[in-house]
Write a sequence for this structure.
């Protein structure tokens, strides 16, 4: 029997040994789902404190349903902090970061280094599934490189697949289970194996077969599309400010049109994906870099929003802006109801205000304090000690908590438009637009 | 009783005399709806041949349901070609063109000139409803100007309202009846009168009250939003071509994402609205012009598509491009199933091919020939006499008609992706992307 058939049969019988590489936001729940799917699953992460935490049952993030899932399956997950003992793995699932550098170029070092480590230990047929968002052509190039550093034959003894996740932070568990996803092999057999494996965990109708370049481009296009749609809303906010009207009123009325659905404008776009994925698409090749215009412009518009909010504050506070030094920032995560602060536009506004010499008090009970980010614990203290309150992130419970306080002598800045109806309760209300 | 109350009561009793100014794509069906709504309606258009045609029952365009509507109400519509006899009008509804000039600046001359004519004849209270798409602030400025050239008092004896249409060409009658619409007055009383009048014709729940600046901006934002969404699909087509993949495959898979709905890419964006409305929004003021970046970029991406298609033709035909001179263009309207050729990207491709010395035969039975646009009558003749067939517009019946012919020695260019599944029936198939 060919290696391919043996490998396929092992998946069908769920005898394949799976290893999830990278146990962060995506990799950790992914590993639990594969365990639930009936596979023997191990995990590896080079971050030793993360591994320590997991070993003692401490989860890397807060996500609805994750505690329940972990209760059943975390005890069954063998966790490594090095590759030495992973030579028997059949299926490697790479859930590693793929950030961008200061020039907006994709950094694929984590993935490449992991693939080199895998190549160094592996002696038998292996399926490599890359779940990370990668530049177009990456999976194909890595399969080629892999073939040069292992003594295995491509498409006979090893197969490369790109299969991006599509989950919404905050609903990771639910969306990992329910969303359709793509499996794009470098070869047709790779696609078949990937489909077989992922289908056996998530249901085969939910896994759609394609080629790796298509799956890579689709994933990048999905996030670039959402980013561009938000940029439209944000550009409309900039224009509405100039015109002197409320952008939310414009959007409310425009969206009565049967074919129009403008998204919410705000303080900007953050998180681990949107701020970089458009750039990864654009900078996949020299050719795409030269051609792309809309996606980079969208990125730039979204990046400009914290400055716009600062400009609104200065314009509306006028001479008071110089006189008042104490500002409260409520919410530092990149969006409501998550603990993630990566690329948060709130942090960008914080840095702009600090540059102007403002003394800031930061409040966000979802986020852990660290040496760079000192958070106050009591909302009351924060409100009492500041003259200007910036309601930067609309955590679902935070508005009610804020409104319990007397705000009649406060200037309230409200880029998310959450406090518009309560504007008469503040000394001054500063919205995203007029 | 105040003029305002009297005016309002006249609307309630449907005694107001209505005049629709401009009897083209929007004005003509609009007039019929007001007649159907029970008002005495007259119409005026300075285009004498249009007026002659209407007087003899010849409709200005083909639209589903229009013939039926016209059968009942066109005989009741008194049509003028000058303002002399319109002094008794109570409600003027302006459905006039508002194009842009070569510098993308809005041209509002038709509207301004009509308002001057109205000012010259009117001696009693009047409601002016502007249905045209106008730069932000236009309605307010015109109300101000009007107050200086009539002996009537603003908000006591005359009222200005902006109430944009929102119809899809091809479904004008159905959408005019069913879509929600805005009524944005310069003053609150103006909004009230506009709401009363339009509500009495289309149902008051469908008419949403706002201010003129909001209604002007909403209308422009609606079309700029759609244009930007199409530009995203088109930019993705440019990138996919460079990458060497089929953009439609990418979009198909990306749209499996629960929050992604990328539109169709193609030969570009035409018609009377999308190519100009983004520019009207951006160029409404000097300030907005300086701020806008995404909307102008979207316009530019969409404008570039005919050149991209020419580039695809040249690349795929290679040396044959120089050798072959006879090209057929099937479809010259700006989108499928309409007769409108305004700003059609097909016309732009025609002009690019002519610049390269190609002999073109054009076919589009929905469009009338004229001295600038000579159309062939027989599809068979066109196909037989050309080596390259550009399927520029996907009229719903045209694909079947084309496929009745033997195309095995033809090069077929298919920017709309309509013939992808039949690609093996042609000597060569050239899609929008690889």
């Amino acid at each position: 029997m060919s290696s391919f058939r043996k490998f396929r049969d092992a998946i069908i019988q769920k005898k394949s040994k799976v290893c999830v590489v990278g146990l962060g936001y995506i990799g950790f729940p992914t590993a639990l789902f594969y365990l639930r799917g009936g596979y023997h699953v191990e995990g590896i992460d080079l971050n030793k404190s993360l591994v320590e935490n997991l070993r003692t049952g401490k989860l890397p993030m807060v996500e609805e349903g994750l505690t329940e899932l972990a209760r059943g399956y975390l005890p069954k997950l063998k966790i490594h902090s090095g590759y030495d003992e992973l030579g028997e793995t059949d299926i490697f699932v790479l859930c590693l970061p793929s950030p961008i550098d200061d020039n907006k170029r994709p950094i694929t070092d984590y993935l490449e280094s992991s693939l080199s480590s895998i190549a160094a230990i592996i002696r038998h047929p292996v399926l490599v599934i890359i779940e990370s968002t990668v530049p177009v052509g990456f999976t194909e190039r890595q399969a080629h490189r892999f073939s040069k550093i292992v003594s295995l034959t491509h498409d006979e003894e090893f197969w490369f697949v790109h299969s991006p996740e599509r989950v919404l932070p905050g609903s990771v568990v639910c969306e990992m289970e329910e969303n359709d996803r793509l499996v794009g092999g470098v070869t047709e057999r790779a696609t078949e194996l990937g489909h077989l494996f992922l289908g056996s965990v998530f249901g085969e109708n939910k896994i759609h077969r394609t080629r790796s370049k298509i799956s890579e481009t689709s994933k990048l296009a999905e996030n670039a599309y959402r980013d561009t749609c938000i940029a439209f809303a944000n550009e409309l906010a900039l224009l509405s400010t100039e015109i002197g009207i409320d952008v939310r009123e414009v959007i409310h009325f425009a969206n009565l049109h049967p074919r129009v659905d403008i998204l919410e404008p705000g303080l900007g776009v953050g998180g681990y994906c949107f701020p970089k994925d458009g750039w990864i698409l654009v900078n996949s090749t020299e050719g795409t870099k030269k051609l792309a215009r809309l996606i980079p412009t969208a990125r730039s518009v979204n990046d400009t929003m914290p400055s716009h909010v600062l400009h609104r504050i200065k314009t509306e506070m006028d001479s008071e802006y110089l006189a008042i030094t104490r500002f409260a920032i409520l919410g530092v995560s990149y969006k409501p109801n998550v603990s993630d602060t990566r690329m948060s536009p709130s942090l960008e506004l914080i840095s702009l205000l600090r540059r102007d010499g403002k003394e800031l008090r930061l409040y966000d009970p979802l986020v852990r304090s660290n040496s760079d980010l000192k958070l106050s614990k009591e909302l009351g203290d924060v409100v009492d000690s500041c003259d200007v309150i910036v309601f930067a992130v609309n955590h679902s419970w935070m508005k009610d908590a804020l409104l319990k306080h007397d705000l009649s002598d406060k200037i309230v800045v409200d880029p998310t438009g959450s406090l518009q109806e309560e504007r008469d309760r503040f000394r001054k209300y500063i919205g995203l637009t007029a």
In short: Chain A touches chain B through 63 residues (CB under 8 Å). Chain A is about 45% helix and 15% strand.
